[in-house]
Amino acid sequence: MNQLLKNKIVTSCWIAAGVLTIVLLGAAARIKNHHTCAGINVEIKNADELSFIDKDDVLNLVNVNGLLVGKDINTINLFVLENALKQDKWIKDVQLFFDNKDMLEVYIKQREPKARVFTVDNSSFYVDAIGNRLPLTNKASSRVLVVTGFTSNRDTLSAPDSVLLFNMVKLVNKISADSFWNAQVAQVNIKTDANFELIPSLGNHIVEFGGADSIDNKLRKLKAFYKNIYYSKGMSAYTVLNVEYENQVVASKNSTANNVDTAVAPIDSSQAKLASNTSIPDSLNNISKINNVKDSKISVVKQNKPIDNSLRIVSTSVRKAENVIKTPVAKAVMGKN
Fold first, then answer.
1. CA-CA-CA-CA torsion for 15, 19, 22, 28, nearest 10 degrees?
2. Which CATH number is 39-110 given?
C-alpha cells in the first residue's frame, strides 16, 4: 500500500509539472505576441547616387493611418502596409519585418529613371527602363536623356501611345547603356509620324533615326560614319544624317541656299574592318571610343554621280539648311520644374 501511494504521489507531481510548464509557455507566448513597436528603421538601398524618395517620405507613408511606434505588433498587418508603400510610384520594392528588438525594419528599393519626357502639351514626367512613368521630384540631381514630343500624359494611354512609349523606352535604353551614345546624344525628338530624331551633343546636325526597328544596326552605321567621314570633314560638314535606309547613311548639307550637297555612305556588312583612310582627332577619339566598330566600309558618292532611285528620292527630299531647326537640350537635371 505504501508503494502504491508513493507511485500516485510521483505521478501527480509529474502531471502538475507538465501543467505548470504549459501554463508558463502560454503566458510567455501571450507576452511576446503583445509586444509593441519600439521604433521604425528605414533603409533606401540605392539612394547613394539617386535620391527620389527620402526617409521622411517613407515614414509618412508608414504612419498614414496613425503612428506605429507603441502599437501592439500583433495588430500591425505588414502585408497591407507593404502594399500601401508600393502605391508610391518611386518605390520599386519593399521588405518589412520586425527584428528581435521589436524594431520595424523597412527596406526600400527606388525606381531609377532613364529619361525625362516632355509631351506636346508641355507636361513632363520621367520614365524608367521598363516604361513606368514617374512624377517630377525636387529630390534628384542626376542628369538624364531628354525626350521631346511625346503624345500624351494621360494616366491611361491609348494603344498607339502605348506602342510609342514602348518604342521610346527601347531606344532610350540602348542609348543610356552605351557610354559613347550616352555622351553623344543629348536629346531624342519624337516626330509627328512617330519616328525619332537624335540631336547630338557634338556637331551641328540632326540624325533622322526612323522607327525603333534595327536600333543596334542603325547605331553601328552611324558610329562608323562618324569615324570614317564625319570627323574627317569637320563637325559642321553636314546638317542631316539619315540612318533609316538599309546598309547606308545619307548625309546632307546646304553649301548655298539652293545647292544641296549630299553624300551617301553605303555600309558593306561583308567587310571586317573600317576604312583606314580617315582618322578621328585625338580629343574626339577619346570621347567616342569607337575604334572597335566592325563590319563597316564607308565610301562617299557625290550628288552629281549616278545613284539609285531610292537614294535620289532621299537626296531631293532632304530639308534645306534654313528649314533645319536644331534646338539641343542639355541632359536634364532632375528638378521640381
1. -140
2. 3.10.20.310
| Cell numbers at 264, concatenated | 551617301
Contact (CB, 8 A) for 333 and 141: yes
How many helices and strands, by DSSP H and E, does the chain display? 9, 14
Question: Which residues are 250's β-sheet partners?
Answer: 242, 264
Domain spans in the chain, listed from the N-terminal domain onward: 39-110, 166-322
Q: Closest Cα to residue 261, out of 219, 301, 227?
A: 301
First-to-last alpha carbon distance for the chain, in angstroms, is 96
Report d(CA 43, CA 87) in Å as an integer. 18
Burial of 292 (0-12, 13-18, 19+ CB in 10 A): exposed
**Average pLDDT per block of 10 residues along the chain, 337 residues long:** 66 74 69 78 80 88 88 90 91 92 93 93 93 86 86 93 96 94 94 95 90 94 84 76 89 56 51 34 35 37 33 31 39 45
313 within 8 A of 262, measured Cβ to Cβ:
no
pTM value is: 0.67
Contacts of 282 (CB under 8 A, 6+ apart): none
> Rg of the chain over CA atoms, in angstroms?
32
pLDDT value, residue 10: 66
How would you classify the pairing of strands 113-119 and 124-128? antiparallel
The full DSSP string for 42-85 is: EEETTTTT--SS-HHHHHHHHTTTS--TTSBGGG--HHHHHHHH
| Cβ atoms of 146 and 175 closer than 8 Å | no
Strand ranges for the chain from DSSP E: 39-44, 91-98, 103-110, 113-119, 124-128, 133-134, 143-150, 185-190, 196-200, 206-210, 240-242, 248-256, 259-266, 332-333
Residue with cell 526597328: 213
